[in-house]
Amino acid sequence: MKTESGKLSRRRFLKESTAAVAAALTIRRPGLARGAEKELSRAGVVVLLGPPGAGKSEQSRRLTERYSIPAISTGDLLRDHVRRGTPLGLQADSYMRAGKLVPDSLMNPILEDRMSQPDCERGFILDGYPRTLAQAESLGALLKNKSLPTHVILLDVPTERLFKLLTGRRVCPRCNRSYNIYFQPPKKEGVCDVDNASLVQRSDDKEEVIRRRLDTYQKETVPAIEYYASQGRLERVNGDQPPEKVAAEIEAKLAAP
Ligand code: AMP
């Protein structure tokens, strides 16, 4: 049973990393400049921090394309379990619906499993983890054995803007791409630009749940951010600007020695 579910999740993970592999094939074309190849191999681990709605998933997607490393979104991993109705998904669902954090006993094993997949050897992007001080410490222990450069990047977005970013968010259930009906609408209303699927609103992007999530961020995640800041490891990026500008700022941080 354990082996079977392990096999299933591995298969699923391979499926999830298809986009990253496709991006890798595109990026590693023969004409790529030598300097760029060198830069790609330096990406390592990128920990993207920021409040819900700050645009972490959009920036993860861009980084995946730019550096050919997979993006690990803990929210997406959990939603996948919920969709498949796994025992873990059934337990996680009630926390997610309430805008609460899923307990580490459920969260950490999924993350460790994903991080140990072969496509993560050169590095990966973490979107949505760590979210607590305890998770930041666990992550430190996990990364200790990997000799990968690690960047911790905070997407700074004023709190008053987050509410609109979250209530306006619509996602493609097929490719997970995010849009915003106020700030970044799709070309055709309600439909994904990439695969024409009908966009949906996440069940936790409802007003009352949003309030709880923002509250959880303040209480639980801000201490993790302060932990990195106190170690002098936090790199701040202005997240309140068009996604391409945010991406350029992140790239500049990653390129710095
Ligand atoms: P996200 O897609 O990152 O906004 O995450 C959606 C929900 O998944 C969160 O509100 C939490 O309930 C849960 N979740 C995602 N990442 C974590 C994490 N690192 N620790 C605990 N719960 C998480």
Explain this structure.
The chain has a domain at 2-72 and 116-168 and 205-255: 3-Layer(aba) Sandwich (Rossmann fold), CATH 3.40.50. The chain has 257 residues and is α/β, with parallel strands linked by helices. The model is unreliable at 1-38 (pLDDT under 50). α5 (74-84) packs across α6. The radius of gyration is 18 Å and the shape is globular. The relative contact order is 0.15. The chain has 11 helices and 7 strands. A hairpin with a 6-residue loop joins β5 (169-171) and β6. The protein has a 5-stranded parallel sheet, sandwiched between helices. Strands 5-6 form a two-stranded antiparallel sheet. It binds adenosine monophosphate (AMP). Adenosine monophosphate (AMP) binds at residues 52, 74-75, 78, 95-96, 99-102, 107, 128-129, 131, 135, 204, 213.
Can you count the beta strands? 7
In CATH, the homologous superfamily of the domain at 2-72 and 116-168 and 205-255 goes by the name: P-loop containing nucleotide triphosphate hydrolases
What's the level 1 CATH class of the domain at 2-72 and 116-168 and 205-255? Alpha Beta
Number of helices: 11
Show unreliable segments.
Answer: 1-38
CATH topology heading of the domain at 2-72 and 116-168 and 205-255: Rossmann fold
